[in-house]
Design brief:
The structure is a single chain. By secondary structure, the chain is an alpha+beta fold. The protein has one domain: Beta Polymerase, domain 2 (2-Layer Sandwich). It is 34% helix and 28% strand. The chain is built from four helices and five strands; from the N terminus they run H-H-E-E-E-E-H-H-E. The protein has a five-stranded mixed sheet. A hairpin with a 2-residue loop joins strand 3 and strand 4. The longest helix is centred in the N-terminal third of the chain and has 12 residues.
Length: 127
């Protein structure tokens, strides 16, 4: 709940709303949209951006858009197929934490963490 409050507080501080954010995104049908800001972990500054992840079966390849603006907030958006999410999960599942050097990549851990603690800002169906 504290994560959600930090997310919504950040939007409000920058004159943005979830509705406005979703209008600014090109969200295909059957998508899940997750928002994250470093404020959720207590590390954000006034210059911190917002990260939004859009996962859908209707997206065929990874696309990253930097610097979309919603209100006075800079938003980085990642559009990805659901298969990418499945790949990230499989990467973690394949790791043997009892052996040296077989840990998931930090980028994988970071991505899954943000999806786990982020705020589901909208979805047209579960993925």
């Amino acid at each position: 709940m504290a994560n959600e409050l930090a997310f919504y507080r950040r939007l409000e501080e920058k004159g943005a709303t979830v509705e406005g954010l979703l209008r600014a995104l090109d969200v295909p049908p059957k998508s899940s949209v997750v928002g994250y800001t470093s404020h959720m972990d207590g590390f954000g500054t006034d210059l911190s951006d917002l990260d939004v992840y859009v996962y859908s079966e209707n997206i065929s390849e990874l696309q990253v858009l930097d610097s979309l603006v919603a209100g006075n907030l800079i938003v980085d958006v990642e559009y990805a197929p659901v298969s990418r999410l499945r790949h990230l999960i499989a990467e973690v599942d394949a790791c043997d934490l009892n052996s040296d050097g077989n840990l998931p990549r930090m980028g994988t851990i970071k991505q899954l963490y943000r999806l786990a603690v982020g705020v589901n800002t909208g979805s047209s169906s579960n993925i």
